[in-house]
Amino acid sequence: MTEHRPWRGVLVATALPLNDDLSVNHDRYAEHCAWLVENGCDGVVPNGSLGEYQVLTPKERARVVETAVAAIGGQRVMPGVAAYGSAESRRWAEQAGEAGCRAVMLLPPNAYRADERSVVAHYAAVAEAGLPVVAYNNPIDTKVDLVPELLARLHGEGHIQAVKEFSGDVRRAYRIAELAPELDLLIGADDVLLELAVAGAKGWVAGYPNALPQASVELYHAAVDGDLDTARALYRQLHPLLRWDSRVEFVQAIKLSMDIVGRHGGPCRPPRVPLLPEQEAAVRAATEKAVAAGLA
């Protein structure tokens, strides 16, 4: 864990354990956060998309952050603070700071296709809460694309310190480095990990370590350290699972893999529905193959 840049390393976008009645199981969540750190991960990102933040009540969302902090310490917790309104996102950033967190992750405005002026104003408002902000570029889901030029502006104006890059366009890594060399690039999609690690990424906001933390951490460190023989072999073995992180059903897929390896993935809240039989079969087969290969 890098003290002044807590977003560096492997930070797991945590899945949220739910009971059969779809209530949050906070005890299981605390145990999960601790288990991830024990297995080599550097920290967690609660209240991201994988944590189903959109369908949590405000009370649940606040308690999820507090639970993670109590389990592993605030320096290891970087909550997502996305919301429809900038004032609400700022309140979530303030709550994160009060809970002891050292940074937050923020999507651009996602209630509509925001223009550049709105995006800059949004990040400026949340940065005023006083915690470092990691931008999250997910143009697939938000319809707002934080292109390298806009990221450079946000960084230059002091609103962001890093970016979780989920566009899938690995070419952007080099343009970002040219325009904003001090802006930390974080791998934002599991299935482009190797490509972005080679391009100079400083961290990984990760999905599949929820189920396979040790193998995932080994893959990340081999990739960023330039041990490409090790990295390529692991990447090839894990990619049938990693690619689910970029699919619509990523929450269901990762939770299913967690169940298969003996963790508690459990159900999802509506409107998410269970995987189709063929999807479940594909995830199950890939997970069982990874387990058989000693990767769990």
**Residue share in helices?**
40-55%
What composes the largest sheet?
Answer: 7 strands, parallel
The residue-averaged pLDDT reads 97
- How many beta-strand runs? 7
What global shape is seen?
A: globular
- For the largest sheet, list the strands in their spatial order: 2-1-7-6-5-4-3
The topology string of helices and strands comes to: EHEHHEHEHHEHEHEHHHH
Percent strand: 5-15%
Helical/strand content category = alpha/beta
Straight-line distance between termini: 23 Å
**Rg from alpha-carbon coordinates:** 18 Å
Question: Residue ranges: pLDDT <50 for 5 or more in a row?
Answer: none
Count of separate DSSP helical elements? 12
Any key phrases for this structure?
single chain, about 300 residues, alpha/beta, seven-stranded parallel β-sheet, globular, lyase
List the helices and strands and how they pair.
Elements: E1 9-13, H1 26-38, E2 43-45, H2 58-72, H3 86-99, E3 104-106, H4 116-127, E4 133-137, H5 139-142, H6 148-156, E5 162-165, H7 172-179, E6 184-187, H8 193-198, E7 203-206, H9 213-224, H10 228-242, H11 250-260, H12 277-292
Parallel strand pairs: 1-2, 1-7, 3-4, 4-5, 5-6, 6-7
Helix pairs in contact: 1-2, 2-3, 3-4, 6-7, 9-10, 10-12, 11-12
